């Protein structure tokens, strides 16, 4: 990692914008494509200012057809370009699953490595903004289950910038998931050239009693839960940052210290990423556990529109507190 300059406080969404701008300046093969990315800067203004700097040739607005422009981007990546695709809501990627999974994720392997796919799919996701089931899904577990595509889930502005720059430079398809609740969360981010490598977890809080692995906005809920338990239970919080490839070394090292594991996600818990983390820990470090590992996630229902029901269906900080207490009461 290069030497970093002074820090300044910026939004999570500004960090994403800066990452794209810097990579487009560094490499003329990088371009942005998606609905309204040129006229309005996208629905959440993440690409604001890019078309003025780079022109319509490299910041291309599209019709409302995810299958078309994701397929176009996959083909462009095969020719050596490095597209960044903005998916307005990650839910809308469903209409382009053939292009995303059968084409982009599979082509490198099916060509014997002769075809590379340096392609980033940026998609915002999450709950908390009361947009109901068709605009609030968490699809990270689907794509973690797909060989050939990397999955990135930054929870801070610092990581939002550093991970996106690494994703753009990667020669494989990368699903880069942005939590819209975090868009206006501010953090100190250094100026200058620096990267956050893919496949390296972050230790957000040190503790001795239990390891909580959390993803996306759930990281902040886990930290709030840990703070509320301080003085009673010492909680360690691990943020994978990259779901695939997954940094099991950091997770296992934490579990070795605490002997207890809780994995928290905002997506539906059934067959989810949390279950995958527990599977890996059980296979690679079962003897490290003194307590049964637990997965905490959303109810097995479409995301409700009602704020009261949405909050009930999605794990909150108090749910994490209660579950931590329950886990530590079940010594095996």
Describe the structure.
- There is one protein chain.
- With 332 residues, the protein is of the alpha/beta class.
- 36% of the residues lie in helices and 21% in strands.
- It has twelve helices and 14 strands.
- It folds into two domains: 7-190, Thiamin diphosphate (ThDP)-binding fold, Pyr/PP domains (Rossmann fold, 3-Layer(aba) Sandwich), CATH 3.40.50; 202-328, Rossmann fold.
- The longest helix has 15 residues, at 12-26.
- The model has no long low-confidence stretch (mean pLDDT 94).
- The strands form three sheets. The protein has a seven-stranded mixed sheet, with helices on both faces. Strands 9-11-10-13-14 form a five-stranded mixed sheet, sandwiched between helices.
- It is globular.
Give the SSE layout.
Layout: E1 7-11, H1 12-26, E2 30-34, H2 50-54, E3 59-61, H3 66-78, E4 82-87, H4 97-104, H5 107-110, E5 120-125, H6 140-144, E6 150-152, H7 157-169, E7 174-179, E8 186-190, E9 202-205, E10 210-214, H8 218-229, E11 235-239, E12 242-244, H9 248-258, E13 261-268, H10 273-285, E14 294-298, H11 307-313, H12 317-328
Parallel strand pairs: 2-3, 2-4, 4-5, 5-7, 6-7, 10-11, 10-13, 13-14
Antiparallel strand pairs: 1-8, 6-12, 9-11
Helix pairs in contact: 1-7, 3-4, 8-12, 9-10
Order of helices and strands: EHEHEHEHHEHEHEEEEHEEHEHEHH
CATH superfamily of the largest domain: Thiamin diphosphate (ThDP)-binding fold, Pyr/PP domains
Portion in beta strands = 15-25%
Distance between the amino and carboxyl termini:
43 Å
**Under the CATH scheme, which class of the largest domain?**
Alpha Beta
Instruction: Specify the overall morphology.
Output: globular
């Amino acid at each position: 990692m290069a030497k970093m300059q002074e820090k300044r406080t910026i939004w999570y969404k500004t960090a994403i914008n800066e990452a794209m701008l810097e990579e487009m300046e560094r490499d003329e093969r990088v371009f942005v494509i998606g609905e309204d990315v040129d006229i309005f800067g996208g629905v959440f203004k993440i690409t604001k200012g890019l078309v003025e700097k780079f022109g319509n040739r490299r910041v291309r607005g599209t019709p409302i057809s995810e299958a078309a422009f994701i397929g176009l981007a996959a083909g462009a990546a095969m020719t050596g370009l490095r597209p960044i695709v903005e998916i307005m809501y990650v839910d809308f990627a469903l209409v382009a699953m053939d292009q995303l999974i059968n084409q982009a994720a599979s082509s490198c392997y099916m060509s014997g490595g002769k075809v590379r796919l340096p392609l980033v799919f940026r998609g915002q996701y999450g709950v908390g903004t009361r947009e109901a089931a068709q605009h609030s899904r968490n699809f990270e577990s689907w794509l973690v289950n797909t060989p050939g595509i990397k999955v990135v889930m930054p929870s801070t502005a610092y990581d939002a910038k550093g991970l996106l720059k690494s994703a753009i430079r990667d020669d494989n398809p990368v699903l880069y998931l942005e939590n819209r609740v975090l868009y206006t969360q501010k953090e100190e981010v250094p100026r200058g050239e620096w990267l956050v490598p893919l496949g390296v977890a972050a230790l957000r809080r040190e503790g001795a009693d239990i390891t909580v692995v959390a993803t996306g906005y759930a990281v902040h809920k886990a930290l709030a839960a840990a703070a509320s338990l301080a003085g009673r239970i010492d909680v360690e919080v691990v943020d994978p940052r990259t779901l695939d490839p997954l940094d099991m070394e950091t997770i296992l090292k934490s579990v070795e210290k605490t002997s207890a594991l809780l994995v928290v996600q905002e997506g539906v818990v059934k067959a989810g990423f949390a279950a995958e983390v527990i599977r890996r820990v059980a296979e690679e470090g079962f003897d490290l556990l003194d307590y049964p590992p637990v997965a905490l996630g959303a109810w097995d229902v479409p995301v409700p529109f009602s704020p009261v029901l949405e909050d009930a269906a999605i794990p909150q900080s108090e749910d994490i507190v209660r579950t931590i207490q329950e886990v530590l009461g079940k010594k095996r």
